[in-house]
Design a protein that fits this description.
By secondary structure, the chain is of the alpha/beta class. It has two domains: 9-35 and 147-298, Rossmann fold (3-Layer(aba) Sandwich); 39-144, 3-Layer(aba) Sandwich (Rossmann fold). The protein contains twelve helices and ten strands. The protein has helices spanning 15-18, 39-53, 68-79, 98-105, 115-118, 124-134, 147-153, 175-183, 200-211, 236-249, 258-270, 289-298; strands spanning 9-12, 23-27, 58-63, 83-89, 108-113, 138-140, 166-171, 189-194, 219-223, 279-283. The protein is globular, with a radius of gyration of 19 Å. The structure holds pyridoxal-5'-phosphate. Pyridoxal-5'-phosphate (PLP) binds next to helix 2, helix 3, strand 7 and helix 8. Pyridoxal-5'-phosphate binds at residues 38-40, 68-69, 143, 145, 170-177, 254, 257-258, 285-287.
């Protein structure tokens, strides 16, 4: 069982929002666990319990070479005494990047698949083949989104958070957004900032809501204009913003998810799209482990 640390919420003071009569707080999900951090803790929580119930001893999952989900699965599996297998998209590159090196050091066995083969990851015959190769395992899908993950992310907000008017999260697969949508109060607005390019995300979220029978009491909004060129893409403006935010608040943001979300939120505030009197709660969904690999890849030194 993963035992969470207590999660702090801090108020951030800055004239950028305070002069507009807006209060902004950040909930540090990135500090929820030293092993499985951020939203991945919540997504894995009930999956690990279920795997144990089923008597499994191995987790198998899929992801890219810098994936927070791969890292969290490896660390959480080791923490609860499971073996883990990571099926990685693309060719192996040596030396291993910091994400994969850390996953391996937490006991994860890595297997690389070409992008074309990797695409079959949801097919039954493909999974059966993996079972022949590795024996029985508990399958966690790429990005970790399933019904049990949503059950977990529905626990991110607690009673104390009901005082906020707006809740902000980053969106990848939408599993976190879905759990939050389930748990917001009637007078709350959930804003999701998509880290992927394209308006398909609206349909994706609709389909998750119908598949997992998610109803929301509050209002939801998905913003798809803060992707900076696409998933994992960045520009100088985003990097500058992440550095600025760290200087002001000593809180690291990652360039894939949380950096884009907070950038997008401040852009919304700047353009008067958030009403005066709003009390905003930003969820720091984690992703800090990915910064080292990003820095190495692009020769940068973003704070972490
Ligand atoms: C995985 C991840 C997300 C996206 O979560 P989804 O549930 O896939 O939408 C957001 N932020 C961080 C830091 C993540 O690692």
């Amino acid at each position: 069982m993963l035992i969470p640390n207590s999660i702090e919420t801090e108020i951030l003071h800055h004239p950028l929002w305070e002069k507009k009569g807006i209060e902004l707080s950040i909930k540090r999900l990135d500090q929820v666990h030293s092993m499985a951090s951020g939203n991945k803790f919540f997504k894995l929580k009930y999956n690990l319990i279920q795997a144990q119930k089923l008597g499994k001893s191995t987790l198998l999952t899929f992801g890219g070479a810098y994936s927070n989900h791969i890292f969290a699965t490896a660390a959480a599996a080791e923490y609860v005494g499971f073996k883990s297998i990571g099926i990685i998209r693309g060719e192996e590159t040596l030396p291993l990047n910091p994400t994969l090196k850390a996953a391996q050091s937490h006991g994860m066995e890595l297997q690389y698949l070409s992008r074309s083969v990797y695409r079959n990851k949801k097919e039954e015959a493909f999974i059966d083949n993996l079972k022949k190769q590795y024996g029985d395992f508990y399958l966690v899908p790429e990005g970790g989104t399933n019904a049990l993950a949503i059950q977990g992310t529905a626990e991110i907000l607690t009673e104390k958070d009901s005082k906020f008017s707006h809740i902000c999260t980053s969106i990848g697969t939408g599993g976190t957004f879905s759990g939050l949508a389930k748990s917001i109060e009637p007078d709350q607005v959930l804003i999701g900032f998509s880290s992927l390019k394209g308006d398909f995300i609206h349909e994706e979220i609709r389909s998750l809501f119908s598949q997992f029978e998610i109803q929301t009491k509050g209002k939801i909004q998905i913003l798809d204009q803060y992707h900076f060129g696409g998933y994992g893409k960045h520009n100088e403006g985003l990097l500058e913003f992440i550095r600025w935010f760290y200087q002001e608040f000593q809180i690291p943001l990652d360039p894939v998810y949380t950096g884009k979300m907070v950038y997008g939120l401040l852009d919304q505030i700047k353009n008067n799209l958030i009403p005066i009197g709003s009390k905003i709660l930003v969820l720091h969904t984690g992703g800090i482990q990915g910064i080292a690999g990003f820095n190495q890849r692009f020769g940068l030194s973003l704070p972490l």
